[in-house]
Structures are given as C-alpha cells and as structure tokens.
Amino acid sequence: MKKRSWFRVLFVLVLSFTLAACGAANENESAVTPDNATKANEQPAEPGKVTNISMQIAWASDSGRGKAIREILNEFEKQNPDVKVEMLGGIQYGQKLLTQILSGKSPEVLQVTYGEVKALASQQAFIDLTPDFMEEKNNYVPEIWDLSITDGKLYGLPWIGHTIQLVYNKSMFEKAGIKEAPKTWDELYEVAKKLTIDTNGDGKPDQYGIGLAGKQGPDMTWMYGMFAAQAGAKLVTDKGNGEYEVAINTSEGQQALEFYTKLFKEASPPDSLNKDGGAIMADFRNQVVAMELQGPWGVPDIWKNGNPFEVAVAEVPAGPTGKATEVTAYLLSVPVGVEGDKLEASKKLIRFLGSKPAQEQIMKGEVGDDGKYYPFRIPIRNDMSDTQYFKEHPEFLVYQEGLQYPFTLTPISEWVQISDEVYQYALNQVVSGKMSAADGLKLVQDKGNEIIKKAK
User: Fold this and answer.
1) How far is residue 412 CA from its own chain's centroid?
2) Which residues of the chain have pLDDT under 50?
3) 3-state SS string over 340-364?
4) Do the Cβ atoms of 293 and 161 come closer than 8 Å?
5) Region labeled Disordered — which residues (predicted)?
6) Number of other residues whose CB lies within 10 A of the CB of residue 267
7) What residue segments make up the domains of the chain, in order of their start?
C-alpha cells in the first residue's frame, strides 16, 4: 500500500508540472494588456479551470441597459476565458440587500450606489477592497473617491454614474437673443423669465423658462437639494460620536427653497405641481420648457425623437456659495462570504470594468428603437476626455465636470425614511403655497430628528 501511494504521489506531481508548463506556453501565445494582467495580490487561475461568478446590476437584464452591460461582460469573458459571468438584473436595496448578502445568496459582484455601500458597510456586508484597489485612487477625482470610502476603507470601486446639469434648447435661446447659458442664480432667473412667453397671442404663456418638479416624490428632493447645496445648506450635521441631526432648517436652506419656489411659480408650467422628472423631460422634448435639470440621458432623449431642435448642456448655475449637483455613483462591491477562486475572479472582473477601455464602452450606450446607440450613464474615471466618444460629443464632458462638486442626497441611512415620511411632503407644501419655507423646513427638522432618535 505504501509503495502504491508513493507512485500515486509521483504521478500527480509529474502531471501537475506538465499542466503548468502547457498553461504557461498557452499564455505566452496571447498578448496581455495592463488592464487585463493579474495583479500581484490576485492569484493566477489554475490552467484549464473555469470559475463561474454572477453579477447583479441595477436594471433588468433584458433591458437596453442590461444588454449594453452584457456586451461589456462578453468582452471580459473573451479576454479572460477562465471566468464566466452570469448577469442578473434588479439589484436589491436596503434591508433586502443586507438580508440577501448575510444569507449567503448574493451574487459575487454587485452594482450598488455609494449611499447603499456606506449604509451597509457598518453591517459588515462587503469585503474590504482597499489592499487590491487603493492604487486606483488617482483615476478618480478626489470627491468621487471620498464618496467610495467608508471608515477609511474601500468597499466598492467607482464604476459608472451620473451628474445633473442644465440641459437647454439652444434654438429657443437663439430665437430669444440669449447667447449663452446662465451661470448664476440671478442669470438663471433672468433667462427663465425671458423665455416664459405667450407664443400664440392668447394672452397666456404657453412656453416656459424651466421645468421644475412640484409633485411630492423623490425628484423634487434632489432638485431642491441642488439649490440648497449651492446656497451652502446641509441636510444633516455630525454632532460627534457618530450622532447626527437635521440641519436643513437654516437661513441658507430657506433662501434656496424660496428661490426654487420663485422659479417654480414664475417660470414653470402651471401644472408643475403634478410633475416629476419624467414629465419635465416630456415638456422639454415637446418644447413646452426651454431648460431642464437632467442627467446624461436627457440629451439622447432629444436625439431619439428626431432632433426637433438643437440641444445643449451647461454646468448648473452657481448659487451664493458656488456650484453643486446631484451625483449618483455606482460602485462595484463584493459581498461578505465570497472567497477562494470566486473572490479572485470577482476582483479580476472589477478591475476590468474599472479599466479605461471598459469605461469607454459605457459611452457606446444602449440600443434605441431605431437601432442606434444612446448613452445612459457616464464613466466615473477622470481620464476619459481623450477617448473617441468624448472627442465627438464634448457635451458629455460637462457631466464629468459635475463629479467635482457633488452634494450627498442620502447623507445618513435614516434620511431615506425622513425623505419618504416628511421631506417630500414639506417641499410640496411649500411650492404649492400652503406653507412657508421656514415652516416647511422646521417640520423637516422636527420630524427628521425624531426619526433619527428612534433609529438609535
């Protein structure tokens, strides 16, 4: 028995060296790019072995956006035949995502907003990627990298996202003799009023300067939130020791809400109390409003509908303390519990998706009904301006500029509940004239602090 065991061991050793040599020979036959290379702290794959992992994205897997991401994953598999990636749609959020992770039923790579990562990192939901990806820091503007850091650790690599900028009807501007987009609040008000006109002679305006959300809902919170941040207001402040309190009820917060309400009443359509972001996009598309606050999908929306006018993009006008915009950055995170070959494959996928070539593929966009491709998000890296798409469509670089002045829409996990239960309601009451800005924000402060205390 001992002699037979010895021969078995010898046979396995010889076979292992033979397979390793064959694998090395095969690897030398194909070029390895820096984006593709295995890093020193990532274990090389065993020759001939295929590791299966899954990735869950924010959108449906069979949607235009899902299909666009699948094309990128296909390129990854082509370059990395030792890894196969199943793509799943419809990422979970909040407690549902945490339950999925802690039950061990989560996909290996998750597309998660930075707010979700921050909220769940304290629950030990994600693997610390700092040792593997800290070297990527210089590929991002500091503001975006900081959003990705929680307690000094990196729990997700920035991937794709959006900023909100001022999208405007250049044709309407030229007809009104307006030569450039507004750069300040005063200019925004002046331009919006100038573009609010009666075009059919019935004595009532039928064209309006800007579309603003008045419907009680999430869109109103980020629209007002931008103005609040531009005025220097904050949603919450840190009292120390990890304790927070609502801080929006200040002179800056009130000034921003009063200006938003003024624009809303004097330069937006009269039915704006019933409108969210989607309805505003329709108004802009139909030339009811001349300006809108919109993400990178706002420009292709006009392209898809036959280019009825020339659309342009400018940075959001600066308020009393400067520019600020809503930024959503999706991170690529690995849930706790992933280990071994699957962990190494997951890190390899994240490294590929964060590479410049893969980021450039994002701008290829999703396929429209006409068979053409349209961008739906922007890459997050800061070195994309020399890529072909941005050279051909520099208007999208404006969205990348916004990455440098983000405001945090969800500063603490309790803010989701605050927004749902009181913030959206209070803003709607103010713009509808049922409540003053001071009273509305006082309501948010009082009810919001109660929610924070109960969550302890």
Assistant:
1) 17
2) 1-38, 40
3) HHHHHHHHHHHHHHCCHHHHHHHCC
4) no
5) 28-47
6) 25
7) 51-163+328-394, 165-327+408-455
H helix and E strand count, the chain: 19, 17
Number of CB atoms found within 10 A of residue 446's CB: 12
Q: What is the pLDDT of residue 79?
A: 97
| Alpha-carbon separation of residue 88 from 63, 110, 345, 415 (angstroms) | 11, 10, 17, 28
Distance CA 357, CA 363 (A): 11
**Cα–Cα dist 398/294, whole Å:** 12
> What pLDDT does residue 287 have?
97
What is the pLDDT at residue 119? 84
Q: Tokens at residue 316, please?
A: 């959001």
Q: CA-CA distance, 425 to 298, in Å (whole number)?
A: 26
Q: Please give the Cα distance from 442 to 439 (Å, whole number).
A: 5
CB 227 within 8 A of CB 260: yes
Structure tokens at 370: 């006409």
3-state SS assignment for residue 124: coil
CA-based torsion, 361, 362, 368, 374: positive or negative:
negative
Beta bridge mates, 257: none
Rounded to whole angstroms, the Cα distance separating 184 from 449 reads: 33
- Domains 51-163+328-394 and 165-327+408-455 fall in the same CATH topology: yes
Indicate the CATH number for domain 51-163+328-394: 3.40.190.10
Residue 13 is classified by DSSP as H
| Tokens found for residue 24 | 């090395």
Q: What is the DSSP string of 13-81?
A: HHHHHHHHHHHHHHHHTS---TTTSPPTTSPPPPTT--EEEEEE-SS-TTSHHHHHHHHHHHHHHHH-T
Q: Quick check: helix, strand or coil at residue 127? A: coil
Residue 39 CA to residue 43 CA, distance in Å, equals: 8
Nearest-angstrom CA–CA distance, 167 and 82: 44
Q: Would you tell me how many other CB atoms lie within 10 Å of the CB of residue 171? A: 15
| CB-based contact 387:356 (threshold 8 Å) | yes
* DSSP category for residue 423: I
124: left (phi over 0), alpha (psi -120 to 50) or beta: left
Class of domain 165-327+408-455: alpha beta
**CA atoms 173, 179, 183, 186: torsion sign:** negative
How confident is the model at residue 44, as a pLDDT?
60
What is the dihedral angle through the alpha carbons of 146, 149, 150, 154, rounded to the nearest 10 degrees?
Answer: 180
The answer to whether residues 381 and 295 touch, using CB atoms and an 8 Å cutoff, is: no
Structure-token pair, residue 95: 């407690």
d(CA 237, CA 402): 23
Could you give the CA distance from residue 122 to residue 128 in angstroms, rounded to a whole number?
A: 12
Longest dimension (CA), the chain: 104
The helix (H) or strand (E) run that includes residue 112 is strand 109-113
